[in-house]
Amino acid sequence: xxxxxxxxxxxxxxxQQRIEALLDKQSEDRLSPEEVAELDRxxxxxxxxxxxxxxxxxxxLNQ
Length: 63
Fold this sequence. Notes:
Distance between the termini: 20 Å
Number of helices: 2
Order of helices and strands: EEHH
Mean pLDDT: 95
Strand order of the largest sheet: 1-2
Structural class: mainly alpha
Largest sheet: 2 strands, antiparallel
Low-confidence stretches: none
Oligomer: single chain
């Protein structure tokens, strides 16, 4: 995906839907320990993608 001609990396639609499902379950306090770990891993991936996107954006803006 491009925003202002700069590449942006995002999780797939399927992954985004899974995260939403886990967050809905979390709000109802119904996550299993495995699902808590899965959600934690998705959070780590989101942090990584945010870092990559910031780095790419800064690179393009400083050219």
